[in-house]
Amino acid sequence: MQLSFLAPLFDRRGPWASVYFDPAQNDESGAKRRELSVREACRNLEEEGADAATVQAVREALTDIRPADAPAGRAIFAAGGEVVLSLNLSRPPQRQIARWTALPRLTPLLELSAQDPVCLVAYIDRTGADFELRGATGPQDAGQVAGRRWPVHRTASADWSERHFQLKVENTWDHNAREIAEALSSAYAESGADLVVLVGDPRERPAVRDKLPEAVREVTVETEHGGHAAGSSSPALEEAVEQARREYNRRRIEEALDRFRAGRSGTDGPADAVEGVPALVEAVREHRIDTLLIRPDGADLARETWVGDDPDQVAVRRTDAQILGEGDPFSVRADDALLRTAAVTDADVLIIPPSDSEGRDDVPAGGLGALLRWTYASAG
After folding, report:
1. Residue environment code for 234-252, b if the CB has 16+ CB neighbours within 10 A, otherwise e
2. pLDDT score of 149
3. Which CATH number does the domain 119-248 belong to among 3.30.420.60, 3.30.70.1890, 3.60.20.10, 3.40.50.300?
4. Checking DSSP bridges between strand 195-200 and strand 119-125, what pairing results, if any?
5. Beta strands 16-21 and 330-333, pairing class
């Protein structure tokens, strides 16, 4: 998962208020619980040293949230007296989080929402398609394509002229499938989507898929639910899209862990995977991290590191940070420091489910690891 949508959080210096909030139910008792939750969040921020203007901005933002607007909850990030970013969550937090820290607290966000891959849904019929992008910031229009509109319907006649007409219909379908595939490939590249879901006409869907470039076809799935017509969305379609996203995540995590296990051993050459805070800090400073792996139950996530204003200024010890050129380094959690650098260097991030729930061994060790962009041997 790319973290470009978090860019507003790294354009300014903190400290930051990070709040993960569940608005509860939309009834009288729910309203009372929301009020109490808002008070608790603001009180926690005040106790940790947050300034009054930022606390007030958070209070107003939380008070305005309604369950219908954020049924699973919302993450709020504020600094300097204003809310800088507000994102809906895919799953409600098990407990409310309200922290005042030098860098935004982001690992809970990845656990609760941003792990969901960006999905490009193509609603297809024989005359064209509409594209919709589904990601952490909600559904967005991603364009459309219109093909030839005539002829598109076959007849049941066996007359020669009708057979000739039917051939024209077949040619129209093929032409439109090719145009849809080309437009879909462009939308996929421009949107940065992780996978594609084809919805709609049962004949046109496979025709479009067959004409996609191999790289796009490999991340494309079809569903029989829904269609191109307005109002064709349904619970079955929503579940099919979510199933595609879950399956994509499962495969991607397993592939990353297989590569990580092989890469950290270096049996086939220089190691192209590392784990542990010291090795990761070294890789971060050299922009060598391709994919950051985070296991939320790992002990190393909360390990103290030292950083400066520049995301490259990361060190295990305060004295090291000063050597790197930061005269006044500040202490942060290791996961916060690594996620900031991953976001600004376009590294990918994967959340690895806890090992006891998936039957995995405890990798990466300490909960933090990375697949590298290059090794010293390959760089030479």
Report:
1. eeebeebbeebbeebbeeb
2. 47
3. 3.30.420.60
4. parallel
5. unpaired
Dig out the tokens for 60 from the structure: 């107003």
> How far is residue 157's CA from residue 319's CA, in Å, rounded to a whole number?
85
First vs last C-alpha separation in the chain: 29
What is the reported pLDDT for 128? 80
How far lies 177's CA from each of 125, 168, 180, 193, 327, in Å?
Answer: 9, 14, 5, 21, 60
Tokens at 222, concatenated: 């079809």
Instruction: Measure Cα distances from 198 to 24, 62, 94, 181, 186 in Å.
Output: 35, 37, 34, 11, 15
More confident of the two residues 105 and 354: 105
Residues 6+ apart with CB under 8 A from 9: 16, 77, 84, 85, 104, 106, 343
Cα separation, 139 vs 302, in Å, equals 34
Give the start-to-end residue ranges of the domains of the chain. 4-114, 119-248, 266-379
Residue type present at position 108: P
- Whether the CB-CB separation of 207 and 98 falls below 8 Å is answered with no
DSSP notation for 300-363: GGG-EEEE-SSTT-EESSHHHHHHTT-SS-EEEEHHHHHHHHHHHTT-EEEEPPPHHHHT----
CATH number of 266-379: 3.30.1330.30
Is the predicted pLDDT of residue 7 greater than 80, yes or no?
yes
The CA distance from 151 to 31, in Å, is 57
Confidence of residue 324 (pLDDT cuts 50, 70, 90): confident
